[in-house]
Every structure is written in C-alpha cells, then in structure tokens.
Amino acid sequence: MELQEAVKGYEEQLLKSLQESIRIRSVQGEASEQYPYGKGVQDCLDHALKTAEALGFATIDLDHQMGWCEYGEGEEMVAVLGHLDVVPEGDGWSFDPFGGEIRDGKVFGRGAMDDKGPTIAALYALAALRDSGFPIRRRIRLLFGTNEETGSNDMKYYRSHGGEIPVMGFTPDGEYPVINGEKGLINVNFSRNYTQDGDVRILEIHGGSAPNVVPAEAKAKVVCPAELAASLLKKSDDRIQYEKTEEGVQITAAGLSAHGATPELGVNAIGLLLEALCELPLSEEADRWVRFLEEKIGLETKGTSLGIEMADEISGNLSLNLGTLEGDDHSAALEINYRYPVTKSYEDCAQILEQAFADAGFTKTGERHKKSLYVPEESELVQTLLGVYADHTGLEPIPKSIGGGTYAKAIPNIVAFGPIFPGDEVREHKPDEFIEVEKLMKNAQIIAEAMYRLAK
Q1: 85 noted as active-site residue
Q2: Among this protein's residues, is 197 annotated catalytic?
Q3: Catalytic hit among 114, 148, 436, 449
C-alpha cells in the first residue's frame, strides 16, 4: 500500500479523534498525585493513549507525567514529540474554543494548531506507516507531552526517570521547512534597595507585563516641587506625558510593543521612562540605579553597553529586552530577557551581565535558562527532513534559526518540523484558533514520510 494513500484512508478517524481531543479542556489545572498537571490534561492524555491502543499500538503512561506509543523493533529509536496541553482560551472567540467544530474546511478550537492537530496527525501517520508494510530498522516512538505550555516539566520527568533518548527526531510544533537553530534564552531577575532624600523622589515605578514582551507603557510617580512640576508639564510630547499630582508629577512613557525575540521591532517604554527620570535631580542612590539602567540598556537591544553584544552568521545578533520594572520609594526589581546566538554559550554572556549589575548594587534574585539548540544543516536529520519537505511541497528547503524556543529543546536530537507552512497566518494562542483540514492531512502525510525516512 502506498504510504500517502494509507494516510488518506484515516482522514475520517483522524478528524473525529482531533475533535474529541479538542473537546477536552487540557489547560494546566490544580496538581495532585494522580493529576500532576490537572485533571483536564490527564483526561486528554488518557484519550490519546486509548486512541493509540485502539489503533493497535502498545502504550505507556509514565506516572501521569506524559505518555507514548511505539511501533517497530530495533535498538535505536526515532521520536516524534507532540503535546496535548493548551493555553487558556481567552476572550474574543466566534466559536466554542473547546467545541472542535468543523466549518468551511477548518477545524476550530484551542489546540487545533498548537499542538493537538499535529500530534493526532502524527498518531494516524504512524498507523498508516505500519499499514503500508514498509520495512524499518529503528523503532518509532510518539511522545505525548502534557506540559509544554507551562515549563516542559513533563519532559524533564521523562529524562530523569530513564526515558530513552532518540537518535534523532522532530516536533511538529514549529514551522516548515526545518528550524535547526534556536537561540539560548535567559530570563534573569535583579533587585536593589536604595534610600532617597531631597525634594525630588521616586514614589512608584511600573513598566511591562512579561520579560519576553517589549513594554508598550511605563509609568513613574515622582515627588517634586511645584515649580519643577509646572516646567515638566510643558515638556509633554508623543512619547513622554507629564501629569500633575498632589505630590508632584506622574510620568507616562509610550513605547511600541514587540516580541522579546525581536526587540528591535519595538520601542521600549521603560527605556524612554528612564531617559526622562535621568533629567531630574534625583538623590544620589536613586540617580545611580536609574542612570545605570538608562546608560547600560535604555533603548538598546543588542547588549552593547553591557558588554555582551555578539552574533553569528547562523542566527544573527544577541537580543536583549528589559521586560519589566517595578519599584517604590526604597526598592526596585526588574526582569531581563536575552537570547544568545546558537553557536555561543551561557558562559559567553551571563557572567559579564551579572557583574555589571553587581557593580551597580543589584542582587540577582532569579534566573531561568534554556540552552541554545543547533543541529548542522548537513546532518542526516536536517537533510532528511528538508528532503521530505521539498518532495511534498515543491518549495525550496532552506532551514532557519529563530530567536524563540520550541518543544525541541526539551529532548536531545530533536528539531522543529512543521506544522506551519511559509506564508501561513500564525494562529496559535489566538481566538478562533484553527487548522485547515487540507493542511492537517498534508501534515499527516509529511509526518508519515519523515518517520519512514528517519527509521528505515
């Protein structure tokens, strides 16, 4: 049986299973021993495993943390890594976010694209490959993840509890043709206490909502004499607005939001606010930390003044975003999101940045780090996947490196491969998330072929 025809034969079952999966609200919930990520997530894992069993595959539920099914024999294993957890539905839907409705050739619902659609497609692709009878020398394991959206603790558990590492594989949770490079990602928190005296003092400061978003607005309330307040009110413009308050002024900076992976596309409102604060006669300690942040970061996006600017030909420049800043009259806390090129390392930048903040009186209070991922273009894995993509689309297969991160970082020897085709609208995490039936089936065919070529 031809492999692609075998995939097409499962279309009705695939769509039914995807609808059933979407109808399970698998948003992370209250944890318990039986439901480490909440009952909804476990229900969705149970559904996937039962579907796999009905298709004739042996399955494993690893302590309710994640699960898998497997086909084939052999000492080596290739993996397809998908996830069943989803982000909350949010507002603005025209359809039931957990209805799995099919209309106008599209399957609607949270997870349809990210990542239930591709994961269920991979399950039926595996069944089609088995039905085809094509010989393979490596086992194929389909991993059902349950915590991709909130930390990938599922895969940390898998790895720490003896989970087999594939010789190669992919996650259909990114883009085509292949994402073979992902920058290293660091979120780091700093705080500082300080004292103030004099007539001009910071009362409150606030900017940003998340480290990976360029803040569009930042505000500060400042105590100052009436004469200074009056002069500041005359300086308001499109970017900086001054409003009179009982104590002095409120300063509001208006920037332009952008994703933390591409901060150069935005204008950091915290940086604008720091510029405005530097023009005020603040007391010594307040002026020191404000001026440090303005001079060392401000509106910069490459870490230049902090001494960590670097780049490579594969993934471009280090990017840096001052994502949040919170403070009152005696303390300030901030979080920075920065991403280093794929051929560089944590050691190339983190210690330099931390020393600069330590010298300015800040204390590091937290940090999260995901190492960079890079699989050379000439590798067997990347070349195989590029060949599958080219054969099925007729498009030029050029791999890409990104500033963001995918599920591929959770397991060694994995890259992101699909499900989004070039030119497609990015729909995950948005209202009315959907996947076209035609492209769902196209993904299933591509996944089936990729499984076969990697395992044969």
Answers
A1: yes
A2: no
A3: 148
